[in-house]
Amino acid sequence: MKTLLFTILVILCTACSPVVTAPPPAAATPVATLNACGLHHTVNINTANGPELESLPGIGPDLAQRIINHIAINGYFMTLEDLLEVDGIGQAALTLISSCISLETE
Predict the structure, then answer these.
(1) Strands 101-102, 43-44: parallel, antiparallel or unpaired by DSSP?
(2) Cα(97)–Cα(58) distance, rounded to whole angstroms?
(3) What is the CATH number of the domain that holds 39?
(4) Is residue 85 a contact partner of residue 70, using CB atoms and an 8 Å limit?
(5) Which residues, including other chains, have CB under 8 Å from residue 75's CB and lie 6 or more apart?
(6) What is the predicted pLDDT for the residue at 50?
(7) Which of 32, 36, 52, 86 ranks highest by number of CB atoms within 10 Å?
(8) pLDDT by residue (tens digit) across 1-55?
(9) Which residues contact 84 (CB under 8 A, 6 or more apart)?
(10) Is residue 40 part of a domain?
(11) What's the whole-model pTM score?
């Protein structure tokens, strides 16, 4: 008899207890998209400093300094093709970085 009462009590308590469910899945966190160079943004070639230029593929410290020196002497780059005037930037390098740079003049 005690077992029967205990069983009934357990059933009633179980039926009365709230149903525990898993929380709804969190909204997916947007993943920042990277450009072809693996960057989250473009690099303004006309105003970038050395480390910013070096973040571009194929641009090391020496080439970054040549770009900075070219701008200091000749002014801002107005077209992508103007970058071909910098020693060390050929058509292949220009193609590699073209989708990763901008030519804003401040």
Answers:
(1) parallel
(2) 8
(3) 1.10.150.320
(4) yes
(5) none
(6) 97
(7) 86
(8) 656 555 655 565 555 555 556 666 666 655 556 656 666 679 999 999 999 999 9
(9) 90, 91, 94
(10) yes
(11) 0.65
The residue segments making up the domain with residue 74 are 34-97
Asked whether residue 84 is domain-assigned, the answer is: yes
Cβ–Cβ under 8 Å, residues 96 and 57: yes
* Domain count across the chain: 1
Alpha carbon distances (Å) from 22 to 14, 25, 27:
18, 8, 15
CA–CA dist 96, 100 (Å, integer): 8
Burial class (CB in 10 A: 0-12, 13-18, 19+), 40: exposed
CB 42 within 8 A of CB 101: yes
Decide if 55 is inside a domain.
Answer: yes
Token digits of residue 83 = 């970058």
